[in-house]
Amino acid sequence: MLQYFSDNDEFTLTKDRLHLRFLIKKNSCTLFYDRFEISQLPFVSAELEGGTVFPTSASYKDGCIVSRFDDGDVRIKVDMYEYCARFEIVSCPDSFERLKFAGVFCPEHGKEYASVGMALNSHTNSSELLSASDRTHAECFSEFGIEGGAFAVLLCEAERLRERMKWVTSNLTEDIPWSKKGGAYAADNSDVRSSYLMNTTGIDIDSVDDWIATVKRFGASQLDFHGGSTFRFGDFKLNESCFPHGRDDFRKIIDRLHSAGIQAGLHTYAQFIDPRSEFVTPVPDPGLGGDLFSLAVDVDAAADSLPTIESTKDVSTLTGFFVRNSVYLVVDNEVIRFGAVGDSAFMSCERGALGTTAAPHSTGANVKHLHSVFGLFCADKDSDLYLEIARRTAEFYNDLGFDMIYLDAIDGSDIFAGYEKAWYYANRFVAEIMKNVNRPPILEMSQMWHHFWYYRSRMGAWDHSRRAHKFLLSQHDRSNQRIRAATTLPQNFGWWCYPHVDPNDPIQTRRMFADDYEYFGYRSLCGDWSLSFIVGGCKQNDELGRFSDIISGYERLRHNSPNGEYPDGEAILRGGVPIPISYKSFVYIITRRAASKFPRAKSSRGCVSRTAPSHRGRQTHQFCCRRVTISAKSSCGRRPM
């Protein structure tokens, strides 16, 4: 039963033990059970004409908090539940460009209780990740709709946080196609804990058995197919050299993986489009995104300069993988590449670029300067092509029987409307995929916004180090612990690859040694992090083979003892048991036979030197000692970074 208490300065809503207290003069709101503290957050504020304004007064009437601004009232409906409060914007002045609301403080957040704010529909955002925090806030933009914005603030026992977040997900969300393998449900799925290898070189029916063997050698059970070598980004056209019979060949490969107990992953570049795709050539799709100019004069099919009515002084010819720019234009049905820019002209033009046909164009024709990032084009954010790529992603996933999706490059979504609003267009794309898949995928992305939590199965796929390997791993490990505690999402400890050292430039990239491998495996065991690897092809060199042999031992132990507890620090795996080590007094004792085989690896103390190289190459003591018979008096290795 909801109870309401009020005086001139404040009012309180109570449901069972949960209290929501609003201080009128301070425009502040606190959600608590037993311990009240004044919130320093504004409960509601608005932006218009580039400035922030706050209410002059507030009241509670007909189930709504009514905040009074100079431009009019904001009415926010409040529903109280046993362990959460739901806020919904009922009305708002049309002049507001953005409304921030549900600025709520939960002073009891900590060890006993946990609080989290959760957007409940697609046009309500929070600039914070959907993660546990003592402060929450939400925001809505006028261009996406302010009225109807809804947000829940949850406060419950810390050990029941994931269970309560499930309830909010399934009972209070509106148009969010949440996943049974994402968000609060992710940790219920055992396959989310599995590790994967990334296939970046392609696959065919003749190499699938080699790939199966490689996956199993790492102790993994998933194979992620990175686009480019296997399929084309955007239209998902398969590589004909790998799949001469098209999708039938790829289905056979995925069926073969499934029969071997290996799941298949679809690794796309999200909304982005390969320049060779059917959306670009031979006739460019009108839904391609870009900045519009107008042709100032008639031009024939051979003209190498395109004068425009508008100024082109801000157009650049600078391009690069992370640069948000291209040197391509679309005029009618022709793609044109330009090499220089004048004050009001595109110059040094290559006509009929990317397999299109050069043609004459008339005065006033649209000249579209294509948007591009990561070397790929993109659709206009408001076009049907934008959602068509999402639907094709889902269709490709459904048709071939994939189990996972990795939406790489989605961090480029700022190209559509700037970073502040990238969340909306990125979520719109992912939601369209989730509406069209026939079964929930293990889903990951290269970026994290608030709504992604509802779909995402695991986080933590970083790029690998080139040097200071243990330092990066230790930072990654701490980050995983922090993010899992805040989001409840399982974490990954990749992507990891063996760094190839250039003998002519060994400073930039440092080779990994046995203790690096052991550290990697042991940290994943302690944290229960799934692993992911970039291995190149399925044919392994000796070094990568040693790496996989060590890692697979830790993987077997991680899966066979999911609730195991292990001491912090470092360890070496011997006989399937991790033996803790320290860096105080480790001595490697080399057998007489091994010492004669590697004479230069022995120091004057009879131990392996940290710096003395083996006569077999530029390898330091850890590498040598993996190749000889050793025993440990106590503990050893390099000093941790």
Question: Can I get a quick summary?
Answer:
The protein is 21% helix and 25% strand.
Secondary structure elements and pairings:
Elements: E1 2-6, E2 10-15, E3 18-23, E4 28-32, E5 45-48, E6 51-53, E7 57-61, E8 64-69, E9 72-80, E10 84-91, E11 98-105, E12 113-119, E13 135-141, E14 150-157, H1 161-172, E15 196-199, H2 208-217, E16 222-226, H3 247-259, E17 263-268, E18 272-273, E19 290-294, E20 306-307, E21 328-331, E22 334-337, E23 340-341, E24 345-347, E25 366-370, E26 372-373, E27 376-378, H4 384-400, E28 404-407, H5 414-417, H6 422-436, E29 442-445, H7 469-487, H8 514-527, E30 532-534, H9 542-560, E31 570-574, E32 577-581, E33 588-590, H10 592-597, H11 621-626, E34 630-632
Parallel strand pairs: 4-11, 15-16, 15-30, 16-17, 17-28, 28-29
Antiparallel strand pairs: 1-2, 2-3, 3-4, 5-6, 5-11, 7-8, 8-9, 9-10, 10-14, 11-13, 12-14, 18-27, 19-25, 20-24, 21-22, 21-25, 23-24, 26-27, 31-32, 33-34
Helix pairs in contact: 4-6, 7-8, 8-9
Keywords:
alpha+beta; TIM Barrel; 5 domains; six-stranded antiparallel beta sheet; 11 helices; 34 strands; 21% helix
Structure report:
By secondary structure, this protein is of the alpha+beta class. It folds into 5 domains: 2-176, no CATH class; 192-272 and 382-454, TIM Barrel (Alpha-Beta Barrel), CATH 3.20.20.80; 290-370; 470-531 and 540-571, no CATH class; 582-641, no CATH class. The strands form 8 sheets. Strands 1, 2, 3, 4, 5, 6, 11 and 13 form an 8-stranded mixed sheet that branches. A 6-stranded antiparallel sheet has the order 7-8-9-10-14-12, covered by helices on one side. The protein is globular. The protein starts with a strand and ends in a 9-residue tail after the last strand. The model is unreliable at 585-641 (pLDDT under 50).
